Amino acid sequence: MKNTWKIGALLLACAQMPVWAAEKVYTLLSPDKQIKVEITTGGEDLTYSVSFGDTPLLVNSRIGLDAEGLEFTAERASKKERKIDQTVESPFYRFPSFQEVANEMKLKLKGGWGVTFRAYDEGVAYRLYTDTKDSLTIAGETAEFNFAKDFTAYLPYSTNEKKPEAMAYQNYYTVSKLSEARKLLAFLPATVDCGTAKVTLMESDLEAYPGMFVEAEGTALKGYFAKYPKTTKIHPTRCQEMVTSTEDFIARTNGEREYPWRVLAITDDDREMPVNNLVYALASPNRIGDYSWVKPGKVSWEWWNAWNLKGVPFEAGINMDTYKYYIDFAAANKLEYIVLDEGWYNPKGGDMLTTIPELNLPELVKYGKSKGVDIVLWTVFNVLDDQLEEACKKYSEMGIKGFKVDFLDRDDQTGVEMAYRIAEKAAEYHLILDYHGIYKPTGMNRTYPNIINYESVFGMEEVKWTSPENDMPRYDVTFPFIRMMCGHVDYTPGAMRNASKRDFKPMYYRPMSMGTRCHQLATYIVLDSPFTMLCDAPTNYMEEPEYLEFLASIPVEVDDTRVLLGKLGEYIVTARRNADNWYVGGLTNWDARDLTIDFSFLGEGEHYTATIVRDGINADRQAEDYTMETMDVDRTTRLPLHLASGGGFAIKLIKK
User: Fold this and answer.
1) Are residues 232 and 344 in the same domain?
2) Count of domains forming the chain
3) Domain match, 103 and 140 both
4) Residues 77 and 121 in one domain
5) Which domain holds residue 40?
6) FRET partner for 24 with CA separation of 20 to 30 A, picked from 54, 172, 272, 585?
7) Catalytic amino acids?
8) pLDDT tens digits, residue range 231-249?
9) Cα(409)–Cα(406) distance, rounded to whole angstroms?
10) pLDDT in tens, 587-605
């Protein structure tokens, strides 16, 4: 009788359990049905799994929020599904527009929260949302990426081991098995090679919330978010604001909102990676309205070459004669801009409204406009933010075209809010922005098209001080596949002093590049960069007018982008179209290689004059050696090219 009573009581208890307690799996397929997402509700945690074809990529990965005052459970209340098929306008991007096609599932869960999943042919994305009128304090977010096996990861670790959230988001990729990865935060994007496909973790629509880092744990990557700043200090060198202590939560936010998209780009062909559009597609649409005043362009830039002019009748430096010389050079070569980098105001004073005595900025602006050249001013994020209204008003009225904003070096909620605040106010005054020292792109350039470039790349500045072991040619054929997936890169190429692997030395005042001259030239085609630097001194370019003419003619706005050849970490060949003309650029790592360029992407019956700049016969020893030649090509042409160690090539195709 005792056992019968227990069984009856158990059956009664089960009968009284709510129906939402039972686990249920919801399946979402990509439009081509290659990618499958399975979302499990009803258990202790909300989890998801992702497979590509028959291959599991991620398994039982948890999603959740820890917010004061709300009960977050995995108990489902309702489901909505829809199909997305829309044209996304994308100014100053790798395409002027593209089609966004996805299947969406939105689950509303008990406790005033839910999750939206989208499955694209190009990957998967999800975002959490909360639905409460009260403001929320978010203690933490659970974002797990539990990979099915011990796959190989490409992780860019923080460069600040003591305080990993505070750094410039610039590092090379460390390649290892997930289980062998360092116990150190890595910033996004990060790629995991799952064999049949690569999964790249990114995020989009990051607003009023901290950005995501990841840390390896076994065969998983787990999300980590910077805590909300409690106190800050001003560093004396540039008056940069730095976080000194934090709260025990990650965000204070409105209770009725959507959170950033967690993006998993999935690619089974490396050539698809540099042209993946998920981050841009998932970002909030344009908020500034008319953007016809935004003008991309190439820039004559002084900082990398340390104002190192030669053969001029004046002392080069931060003065009127030097900047007028840079303006004259830009005008002569139809470059749209010069940048006044650090030093035009006293950075230690933190007052960007006061120019140093050596410069008459209104006169310089007037001189530039007389030559058709505009000026962009460097500044520090919080310095601009502190004087935001006055600075935007003063310099827009003076005729300055925008700001290069540097040294945010964080992505906590207040740092992200600062980036948005500056973008919005700059747009009001028709000022463009080049964001440096900032976290990876998260689609903010869709929301604010006046943001025309981002750094967050281990760019050319690194060769001024880095060791030869930090293999730049290899990085140059790695980051276009990973970092460039999420947006523009202000890599600042153009070095005229070029070195082979054995000859390279870091030099601050007379820097050189790793790899050949043609490797440098090809980056102007391979990289998405609508606001791009000519990093070397004008006098160095002027010594080689034929080369300079070719470089200056490469457009920064394109109508089409195609990756013709490529393998992550080894080589890449990209073709870009501007109106009727095409530009093709290729890069290799330190391995010399032979490639054949197939011109079948050209139109039927179209004929072009090709100008080809390729590594010279001695480029393996003398990295500055190159040859230039012309030939006629059409879609039947096959062109074999030899790329030297650390080499490259560039081709300009002018339609007849």
Assistant:
1) no
2) 2
3) yes
4) yes
5) 22-282
6) 54
7) 406, 461
8) 999 999 999 999 999 999 9
9) 8
10) 999 999 999 999 999 999 9
